[in-house]
Amino acid sequence: MRVAWVAILSAGLLFPPLAHAADAAAAKEKAVVCSGCHGDNGISQTENIPSLAGQPDQFIQWQLVFFRAGSRKNEQMQPIAEEITNEDIRNLGAYFSQMTPPKGAEDGDPDLSKKGAQVAVGRRCASCHTDSYAGTKAVARLAGQREEYLVKALHDYKAGQRVGGGVAAMADVAYHMSDEEITAVAHYLAHLK
Ligand code: HEC
Ligand code: HEC
Questions:
Q1: Does domain 2-97 match CATH 1.10.760.10?
Q2: Which one of 2.40.128.120, 1.10.760.10, 1.10.580.10, 1.20.1630.10 gives the CATH number of domain 110-190?
Q3: DSSP-H helix ranges across 39-176
Q4: pTM: predicted TM-score of the whole model, two decimal places
Q5: Predicted confidence pLDDT, tens digits, the chain (193 residues)
Q6: CA 173 to ligand 2 centroid distance, Å
Q7: Ligand 2 contact, 154 CB (< 6 A)
């Protein structure tokens, strides 16, 4: 028992995982609803809807908790999050985090990407999001995310519309960014391979 708890705590999960193989099946069933918007295999084909594939388990779980609590507001996500249990959240986090992350978008503008890379270095984005921008724990994956969604998210933080858990990390970062910087860094991140 003791060993199991140590494993759970060091994994940093919100809700301890169940050991049943049935969980994968349960998550798959729940995720049918999600794929209607977030795409097959967790890769979104829809404007302003993020891909979920390869997001850190803990990040997915926290965002679902924030939507359910109403601290992160979105007309489409809130009604869905209100219907899901802690067990669903745990299963869905595991399910989407294990999917193959989106490949970077093709046909970028190299000059804009270069500018975006400079913004990312200057603002130390990788210090939290990791060098590969795959994210970790409660910090989101950014690599290969939809470009216009990254722009929207940064504007939402900047405007104080996205607060989530009340951790001011992103508000502090985004508040100081110009629209040009946001456009460039989103382009760079969306095209990362
Ligand atoms: C009706 C469309 C719709 C459905 C169905 C839906 N979502 Fe979403 N989801 C959205 C939109 C739109 C956003 C972006 C919200 C925003 O802009 O802040 C989102 C955001 C999210 C996020 C935050 C991701 C990020 O990168 O910030 C998670 C996690 C999430 N959804 C999980 C789910 C799960 C799990 C399901 C199924 C149980 C689901 N969604 C079903 C529309 C949907
Ligand atoms: C101090 C740590 C920190 C730094 C520095 C940081 N971030 Fe974040 N970022 C976070 C955390 C934590 C989250 C999740 C916040 C939440 O729950 O809403 C996040 C979320 C995001 C999201 C939302 C992703 C999604 O899928 O919803 C975007 C976009 C983002 N960061 C971009 C950036 C960019 C671009 C930079 C550099 C200009 C940056 N971040 C620097 C910690 C950081």
A1: yes
A2: 1.10.760.10
A3: 57-69, 77-82, 86-97, 110-122, 126-129, 147-158, 169-175
A4: 0.93
A5: 334 433 433 445 577 665 555 577 888 899 999 999 999 999 999 999 999 999 999 999 999 999 999 999 999 999 999 999 999 999 999 999 999 999 999 999 999 999 999 999 999 999 999 999 999 999 999 999 999 999 999 999 999 999 877 667 899 999 999 999 999 999 999 999 8
A6: 8
A7: yes
